[in-house]
Amino acid sequence: xxxxxxxxxxxxxxxxxxxxxxxxxxxxxxxxxxxxxxxxxxxxxxxxxxxxxxxxxxxxxxxxxxxxxxxxxxxxxxxxxxxxxxxxxxxxxxxxxxxxxxxxxxxxxxxxxxxxxxxxxxxxxxxxxxxxxxxxxxxxxxxxxxxxxxxxxxxxxxxxxxxxxxxxxxxxxxxxxxxxxxxxxxxxxxxxxxxxxxxxxxxxxxxxxxxxxxxxxxxxxxxxxxxxxxxxxxxxxxxxxxxxxxxxx
Length: 249
Known about the structure:
Elements: E1 17-18, E2 25-26, H1 29-38, H2 66-69, H3 96-99, H4 112-119, H5 122-127, H6 131-141, H7 145-156, H8 160-164, H9 169-172, H10 182-186, E3 202-204, E4 211-213, H11 215-233
Antiparallel strand pairs: 1-2, 3-4
Region (Disordered): 43-105, 168-191
InterPro entries: Znf_HIT
GO molecular function: zinc ion binding
């Protein structure tokens, strides 16, 4: 019977390698890592002499790249959430603008309580995890006011004139301009496509915020707009309510 094959000092499997600083043998990188944690040999002692000369069956092992094995894995730090109290809220608007019948159809500024509902909305936060939506909103925000107005109307599927004019209170039961009502019918009655828009979409914005707008981006923006309206109204059942949204861009 020939000599017994050396075995791994960690798992007991046949081994071809030996620790460079102690006599313990190992069979794989995983076993080497496990042994290295408990190896009590000191670096000053130097590598232990090999008791077995290298042979064709048992060649001298190449030492693992310890530097590579010990390289720490870089993990991204999670972004720290800012407390609501640290946000810069606009001043409370004059309550008279909401009760004045002569200003019923005028766009009205958002109140802090409405802004807080937007900031703390979990559905909106989940939706904003969509990279295509955040890139589209960033490109939209970088546009000048007039261009942003036209681009938003185009994204929502309404004409820019209806986006700006006040809504009839008898129709929407609120003093807000479209697209609050238009959003409901935009999917069923899309506007006529212009030839210069292209068959599949168009480019929005300029570099480095330039983004291609396709059907998915338009649907995400419509969904985002509807969620914002719902959070402003404080109405979870999807009704438009009477939040008097100032839909200005």
